[in-house]
Amino acid sequence: MKKILVACIVVxxxxxxxxxxxxxxxxDMQKMAQAMQDMQSGLFYNNLDILKDGARDLxxxxxxxxxxxxxxxxxxxxxxxxxxxxxxxxxxxxxxxTTTDVIVERFANGDPTQALQEYSKITRECMKCHISLRKW
Length: 136
Ligand code: HEC
Description:
This protein has a single domain (about 20-135), classed as Up-down Bundle (Four Helix Bundle (Hemerythrin (Met), subunit A)). It is built from 7 helices and no strands. The protein has helices at about 1-15, 20-45, 50-60, 70, 75-85, 85-110, 110-135. Helix 2 (about 20-45) packs antiparallel against helix 7 (about 110-135), helix 3 (about 50-60) runs antiparallel to helix 6 and helix 6 packs antiparallel against helix 7 (about 110-135). The longest helix is centred in the first third of the chain and has 23 residues, at about 20-45. About 15% of the residues are buried. Heme C binds near residues 25, 92, 133 and 134. Heme C (HEC) binds near residues 92, 126 and 133.
């Protein structure tokens, strides 16, 4: 059992050796875009399961995003300024995560209008970051 645990930790450490790369981030963004599409399909098709699947994927990916390890170690003034925006990133992450729960809850309770409103709130949060930080 101990050996398995050690092996797992070694694999994990090796995997994380590079830290969070730009490729990782692009992949997470694409997962979130897909998750948003799934959630929208859930609303259109009136299908709670599809909505829930999208919500799960979105919540899983949103916790990863942020500066890449390379950016975090940068001495460039502009990049440093962007990295200091982690407070904004954290706020957006929290907001998207809780709003996602609210969408599922509202929809499950038979209130698609409210669910849709919450959905557009998430779109705004995505774009808030893209408009101000996407020059990363
Ligand atoms: C905290 C900032 C931030 C938030 C929040 C954010 N993004 Fe992004 N997004 C970025 C950055 C930065 C890039 C550029 C990726 C790169 O090149 O490293 C990007 C790129 C993308 C791309 C293009 C990926 C590609 O293939 O080039 C998609 C799609 C995307 N985001 C979707 C989303 C969606 C959907 C959300 C909300 C659920 C979201 N993003 C929220 C910062 C953010």
